[in-house]
Amino acid sequence: MKSSVAVLPPFLVLDQLLQSWLLEDIGRGDRTTQSLLLPNSTRSKARWIGKAPGIIAGLPIAARVFQLLNDQVNFVNITAEGEKCEPGQVVAELNGSLDTLLMGERVALNLAMRLSGIATLTNLYVEKISDLPAQLVDTRKTTPGLRILEKYATALGGAINHRMGLDDAVMIKDNHIVAAGGIGEAISRVRCHIPYPLTIEIETESLAQVREALKYKADIIMLDNMPVEMMNEAVLLIREADSRVKIEASGNVTLETIRAVAETGVDYISTSAPITQSRWLDLSMRMD
């Protein structure tokens, strides 16, 4: 797998999100658990068990969910974050008050299963091109409120994070080009307004647009929904004109097509599939 660094945001950033999700689930109180148990009255042990093969992601976040409810809960990773697990494998062990374990179970598991599913599918895409220079890149097609965690999961699966938001970089897409009246005008206007060191990426759909993007010194040229044959021509055109320009391919990338795209010589391949098409990785919590 190519090197990719998955950096979990600090809990200063995450705690507000986690607290809101706990409040959504708990509401005015856990009627079942609070009717059966007094707070902190019984300590218990539990295990998280993998029920399907995949890449584990989100364990530090799950641990934080329980600790926000009770800082005496001990959450120990048995399977390392980012490692593969098999059905029946112990993923984590928990020790703490039984009421806390039951109250935090669903939010913690939901997050870990969602993120593990994303990391698992991402890794399948990455493995398809692991021997080629091209790198897999995620997109902004994320679940509102979950972007920061979903992009963490793609990085854990081996992808490179694209911009986190609209303020990270300039990406001039088809509608921007129409609004500006053309590629040259769009790049020229943007360059007058953006701060250093933001880069300018331009979306192109034809060789004529590629030539115009080169003329106006775009930093990154995206080849959007191009047939592989045209993509090969575009890559050669860009490499001969300006070796500093990075090339990104995008549009209808699947597990079946990604290798052919990578073999054209592009630097990056962007796809939303690992996030939008992934299935949750099934995990369960068992009390000892």
TrEMBL record:
<dbReference type="GO" id="GO:0005737">
    <property type="term" value="C:cytoplasm"/>
</dbReference>
<comment type="function">
    <text>Involved in the catabolism of quinolinic acid (QA).</text>
</comment>
<comment type="pathway">
    <text>Cofactor biosynthesis; NAD(+) biosynthesis; nicotinate D-ribonucleotide from quinolinate: step 1/1.</text>
</comment>
<dbReference type="InterPro" id="IPR004393">
    <property type="entry name" value="NadC"/>
</dbReference>
<feature type="domain" description="Quinolinate phosphoribosyl transferase C-terminal">
    <location>
        <begin position="118"/>
        <end position="286"/>
    </location>
</feature>
<dbReference type="GO" id="GO:0009435">
    <property type="term" value="P:NAD+ biosynthetic process"/>
</dbReference>
<keyword id="KW-0808">Transferase</keyword>
<comment type="similarity">
    <text>Belongs to the NadC/ModD family.</text>
</comment>
<dbReference type="InterPro" id="IPR037128">
    <property type="entry name" value="Quinolinate_PRibosylTase_N_sf"/>
</dbReference>
<protein>
    <recommendedName>
        <fullName>Probable nicotinate-nucleotide pyrophosphorylase [carboxylating]</fullName>
        <ecNumber>2.4.2.19</ecNumber>
    </recommendedName>
</protein>
<dbReference type="InterPro" id="IPR013785">
    <property type="entry name" value="Aldolase_TIM"/>
</dbReference>
<dbReference type="InterPro" id="IPR002638">
    <property type="entry name" value="Quinolinate_PRibosylTrfase_C"/>
</dbReference>
<dbReference type="InterPro" id="IPR036068">
    <property type="entry name" value="Nicotinate_pribotase-like_C"/>
</dbReference>
<feature type="domain" description="Quinolinate phosphoribosyl transferase N-terminal">
    <location>
        <begin position="30"/>
        <end position="116"/>
    </location>
</feature>
<dbReference type="Pfam" id="PF02749">
    <property type="entry name" value="QRPTase_N"/>
</dbReference>
<dbReference type="GO" id="GO:0004514">
    <property type="term" value="F:nicotinate-nucleotide diphosphorylase (carboxylating) activity"/>
</dbReference>
<keyword id="KW-0662">Pyridine nucleotide biosynthesis</keyword>
<comment type="subunit">
    <text>Hexamer formed by 3 homodimers.</text>
</comment>
<dbReference type="Pfam" id="PF01729">
    <property type="entry name" value="QRPTase_C"/>
</dbReference>
<dbReference type="InterPro" id="IPR022412">
    <property type="entry name" value="Quinolinate_PRibosylTrfase_N"/>
</dbReference>
<keyword id="KW-0328">Glycosyltransferase</keyword>
<dbReference type="InterPro" id="IPR027277">
    <property type="entry name" value="NadC/ModD"/>
</dbReference>
<dbReference type="GO" id="GO:0034213">
    <property type="term" value="P:quinolinate catabolic process"/>
</dbReference>
